[in-house]
Each structure stands twice: as C-alpha cells, then as structure tokens.
Design goal:
Strand order of the largest sheet: 1-2-3-4
Radius of gyration: 20 Å
Order of helices and strands: HEEHHEEH
Number of strands: 4
Helix content: 55-70%
Largest sheet: 4 strands, antiparallel
Length: 171
C-alpha cells in the first residue's frame, strides 16, 4: 500500500511562502505605524521614493471609499475563488500556483487591516516623472506580482505552443 501524504512538499513550501509574505506585509505596516505619524513621510530616494503613513478606507486610488461591507464580501468571494482555483491546479502548474499564492497573500494582508482597523495601512509612495503615483503597500505588491505570474504563465504557454506548432510544420 502506497503512503498518501496529506499535503505535498510543493504545497507545503507554498504555504510557507504565503505565511512569510503575509508576515512581511503586516510587519512593514507595524513598522510604519510605530515610527511615523499619519501623513508623515521619510524620503528614501530624493524626489522619487518615500515611506509614508497613510490610511485608505477604499480600494486602489481610494475608490469606493468607506464601503467596508462591500470590501468584506468581495474579499471573501475572491479568497474562495482563488482557493478553489489553487485546489484545481496540478503539481506541474507551479507558475500559476505561485501567482495564486501571492494573490491570496496580498488579499489576506489587506483584509487583516480592514478587519482590525476599518482601513488599509499604505506606505509606499513613488513620484514618477512628476506624477505622484497612488500610495500602496506590500500586500498590493503581492497582488500585482501574483497577477504578473499568471500573465507570464499564459505568455510562456502561448510562446511554446506556437514554437512547437511551427517546428511541426517545418518538419
């Protein structure tokens, strides 16, 4: 009889990544709130990158500001869908799995803030070519990184599928 593991080594590693990234997000927020007053900033790279303490009761660019119940529902639905998607992925779909784990981590990082404080703590402030980009946090970086992993996976599959199809036509 073959031993069945409850969780694969790969999934265990991905859970460790998830916990580590959520901790990184939360610890960065704790550092900012412990060292800066609301609205206070530290210039890291002159005229380009600042660490600032901001509170956001909305989503990106403060849209839907103050609609906490809406964010709770959307977040729970997103977590269920992402969890189901992850569950459906196969062992070899590692790029997609990493992407989904990063998206879940980012979603949970901001959800923790909304549950505890009724707002999200933001701190990363970039000024790019005179444009003050909206302030964001590590959880947002995780969400965007996760989406990029999924896009990269699609692009790589399309590239290799076309390359294989082309080489079959040549042969």
């Amino acid at each position: 009889m073959k031993n069945k593991t409850i969780i694969s080594k790969q999934n265990l590693f991905l859970i460790v990544i998830m916990i580590g990234t959520i901790l990184t997000d939360q610890l960065s927020k704790v550092w900012v709130t412990s060292n800066l007053q609301l609205g206070e900033s530290i210039e890291i790279i002159p005229s380009f990158f600042f660490i600032i303490y901001a509170q956001n009761t909305g989503a990106a660019w403060s849209i839907l500001e103050g609609y906490m119940t809406f964010f709770y529902v959307v977040t729970l639905v997103a977590l269920i869908l992402l969890g189901w998607y992850f569950y459906c992925l196969k062992e070899y779909q590692i790029i997609q799995k990493i992407g989904v784990v990063l998206m879940i981590s980012g979603t949970l990082g901001n959800f923790i803030d909304r549950l505890l404080f009724q707002y999200v703590r933001d701190s990363l402030d970039f000024h790019i070519l005179g444009y003050n980009f909206p302030i964001f946090n590590v959880a947002d970086v995780l969400l965007i990184s996760g989406v990029l992993f999924l896009i990269i996976d699609v692009v790589l599959k399309n590239f290799f599928t076309k390359k294989i199809t082309l080489s079959k036509k040549i042969l």
